[in-house]
Each structure stands twice: as C-alpha cells, then as structure tokens.
Design a protein that fits this description.
Layout (H helix, E strand, L loop, with lengths): L13 E10 L3 H12 L4 E4 L14 E3 L12 E11 L5 E11 L1 H14 L3 E3 L3 E6 L4 E5 L5 E11 L6 H5 L7 E11 L5 E5 L9 E6 L2 E8 L8 H13 L3 E14 L8 E2 L2 E3 L1 H4 L10 H21 L2 H30 L10 H6 L5 H4 L2
Parallel strand pairs: 1-2, 1-9, 2-6, 4-11, 9-16
Antiparallel strand pairs: 3-5, 4-5, 7-8, 8-9, 10-13, 10-14, 11-12, 12-13, 15-16
Helix pairs in contact: 1-2, 1-6, 6-7
Bound molecules: flavin-adenine dinucleotide.
The site of flavin-adenine dinucleotide has 39 residues, from α1, β3, β7, β10 and β14.
Length: 369
C-alpha cells in the first residue's frame, strides 16, 4: 500500500464516471471506501499523501470496540486499562477507560487495503482540486502533475479538519484547537492514559499515552488563549523526566489541528456526504475522532452506494439522521462544556479543580445539568 495505482487516465484531460468518489484516506475514507465497494459500488478513493497514514498526526488511542479494525499485523501496540486525570491541585482520579494503542499509520493503511481488496481503486499522490456539487463533477490533480475530471454519483468528504471539499463547496471552516506532540522513551511500564487539566493547556489538555517502550506526550490548546505550545509541553516533559517516567530525548515530533466546534449543520450537501473530522464529529473536549471517523465512514459508504445504485435520496438523508442520533447529544454536551470553560481560561477559576471536573469526561460533574 502506498504506491499510486494507475486507473487509466493516461493523459491530462482524462474523464471518468463512477459511483462513489472518496476524498481522503484516513480512517474515515478507508472505512467509507470499503463499505461502498462491499455494497457493489464502483469506488475511487484518492489521497494526497504519498504514503497513506504518514506522517502520523495522532496520539494513537482507540476505544476497545474499534479493535476489530486493529487485527492486521503490527497495528496493535498496547492494551490500555484506564485513564488517570490530574487536576490543577495535583489530585488525580482513576477511571476505567479500556482501549488500545495502535500504530496509526498501519491502522490507516490496513483500512485502505481492506477497501482495495473489496474492489475500490486507491490512488495516492492524488488530490481534489476542483468541485461542482450541482453537476457532480470533481477535478483531481494526479501524481504526474496532470489533472483529470471525475463524474461521480456520490462523493464522500473524508478529507480531515481543513476539508477541501467543504472549502470548494463554499462551507465554513470548522473551529480547531492546535496540538503539539513528542514521542519519548517510556522508562516504566504504564497501563493508563494520563491526562493533565489546568490553565497550562487552555482550550485543551496535556496527555501521555503509553505505546510499549515509548509514549506519545502531547498537548492541545486554543490559539485564542495560547500561541506557544512548545513551552508548556517542554515543561510537562521536564516534570515527567524528573519523575523518572520518560526519557529526555525527543524521538519524534508531530502535531495537527482537531475540530472542536461539533457537527456541521448538515452532513449532506447535494450528493456529498461528510464524515469524520470533515463532518465535525471529533469530540470537542477529548479530541478523539478515530472511532467516529470509522463509524461515520462505514455508514456514509453504505448510504452512498445505495444512492448511487437506486438514486435513493432517502439514503443520504438517513445518513445525516443516523449520525445526529448517534453523536448529537454527546457532541452538544461537549460543545457546551467547551463554551463554559472558555469563560474561565486565563482566570484563577481555570486552576480550580471544580472548574476542571465539570469540563472533563472522567468526572460525574461533566454529565450533570
Ligand atoms: C495530535 C493529535 C492527536 C490525536 N489523537 C487521537 C487519539 O489518540 N485518538 C483519537 O480517536 N483521535 C485522535 N486524534 C483525532 C484523530 O486523529 C482524527 O479525528 C482522525 O484522524 C479523523 O479521521 P478522518 O479520516 O476524518 O481524517 P484524517 O485522518 O485527517 O484524514 C484525512 C485525509 O484526507 C487527506 N486529504 C486532505 N485533503 C485532501 C485532498 N484535497 N485530496 C485528497 N486527500 C486529501 C489527508 O491527507 C488525510 O490523509 C488526534 C488528532 C491529533 C491532531
């Protein structure tokens, strides 16, 4: 996986008609392409990167039920038992929060491989550059610099937090938080994900996710409150080095944007279906989005195939409705908690344990009205 696969455009100006065009091959796009292909649709899935999944921009935790997608060799790296949440006072709370740490690049590639085996055509080094949702026409830039036109019946926008599909269709950008992450050596076995909540990480939190002999140590913050993510992450790193938990050497660095505004007003525009981060399905408090990307991708893939085969408009509306049923309440609560917290960042309240307890999923206060 990762090598561009020729699909017969040949020269610039090539034109192609197909059932489902999937834009982006993260977890959302891989799952969508797989389900649409299994349902019998002709599918082309394009990814702008050369190698699917790389560079990794993720802390690599997935909830336990998503383990069914982590069976391929080398994907599963460690089991997680719980989550330890540290409050500004230093008090901590242990919660059961089982899950898995995965090799995210392999996870994404395994999904894309599954889609390819089901009959989807996969092209890397290929990006969406133009779109007319009314005529259902997309322009894609190919690896050799040429471009081609694709006439689709349904398009699945799985192109992440800064969705090109949304931009080309005239939809607004989603609000995001920014992150910075180091991979460091883990000097003691660790079975929990650790979370730090305080005004040091305004609009986000600090995290340590163990992955066998290494750990992903990172933080997120809202740029309205903090531009410099390096200094607070370096301070957290230094504290953990002093505790003997992690090594001082930074093995690799990454980061990226996480949508935190909640679900788009509509997940369907003409015959375009938005999934995963492009749909705003990422949790506005935890930033977790892999499970929602895979689940929305699967659901959109089925709906797109049904729409393509039978012109069933109800399949598209049903997708939007299903996602609202499944994620609406949790995302709305998280968005409301974010708004509450925004009033407190950079005030003494943000270092009050009570404020942080109400704003974090591990505490009962988060779920109270
Ligand atoms: C630092 C960090 C840590 C995170 N940690 C976790 C975690 O531990 N657990 C968790 O559940 N979530 C985590 N998330 C969130 C998670 O990574 C996302 O929610 C998830 O990747 C969403 O999947 P997706 O398929 O919707 O989008 P993406 O994974 O972003 O995939 C979109 C794909 O579309 C491609 N693309 C974009 N534009 C185009 C174009 N024009 N043409 C073709 N291709 C295009 C991109 O190259 C990309 O491969 C983290 C995010 C960050 C930034």
């Amino acid at each position: 996986m990762g090598e561009p696969k020729a699909i017969g455009y040949g020269t610039a100006g090539g034109r192609r008609t197909l059932d489902v065009l999937v834009v982006g091959l993260g977890p959302g796009g891989g799952a969508a392409a797989y389900r649409a292909a299994v349902a019998g649709a002709s599918v082309l899935a394009i990814e702008r990167k050369k190698c699917i999944g790389e560079p990794v921009q993720c802390a690599e935790f997935i909830p336990a039920p998503l383990g069914r997608w982590a069976q391929d060799e080398g994907v599963l790296r460690q089991h997680i038992e719980g989550m330890k949440s540290f409050l500004p006072s230093g008090a901590s709370e242990q919660s059961p929060f089982p899950g898995l740490m995965v090799d995210r690049a392999r996870f994404d590639r395994a999904l894309a491989r599954r889609a390819q085996e089901a009959g989807a055509e996969v092209m890397t080094c290929t990006r969406l550059t133009g779109l007319d949702v009314c005529t259902r026409t997309a322009v894609i830039g190919l690896a050799d610099g040429a471009s081609a036109t694709v006439e689709y019946r349904a398009l699945i926008a799985a192109d992440g937090p800064h969705s090109a599909v949304a931009r080309l269709a005239g939809l607004p950008e989603l609000p995001v938080v920014h992150t910075r992450q180091y991979t460091v050596k883990l000097l003691q076995p660790h079975a929990d994900t650790d979370i730090w909540l305080s005004d040091e990480f305004p609009g986000g939190y600090g995290w340590l996710f163990p992955k066998g002999p290494v750990a992903n140590l990172g933080m997120g913050a809202d740029r309205h409150f903090e531009h410099d993510l390096k200094a607070p992450l370096d301070r957290l790193h230094a504290r953990l080095v002093a505790q003997g938990l992690v090594g001082s050497e930074i093995l690799s660095r990454t980061g990226g944007a996480i949508p935190v505004g909640g679900m788009r007003a509509s997940l369907v525009l003409e015959s375009v279906l938005f999934v995963g981060d492009a749909a705003g399905l990422t949790h506005p408090i935890t930033g977790a989005g892999i499970a929602a990307a895979v689940e929305s991708g699967e659901c959109a893939g089925r709906a797109a195939a049904r729409f393509a085969r039978a012109d069933e408009a109800a399949a598209l509306a049903g997708y939007d409705e299903d996602m609202r049923d499944q994620y609406g309440v949790a995302l709305e609560r998280a968005a409301a908690r974010r708004r509450d917290l925004e009033r407190h960042w950079r005030t003494p309240n943000a270092n009050d344990d009570r404020t942080m307890r109400r704003g974090w999923i591990a505490f009962p206060e988060y779920f109270s009205v």
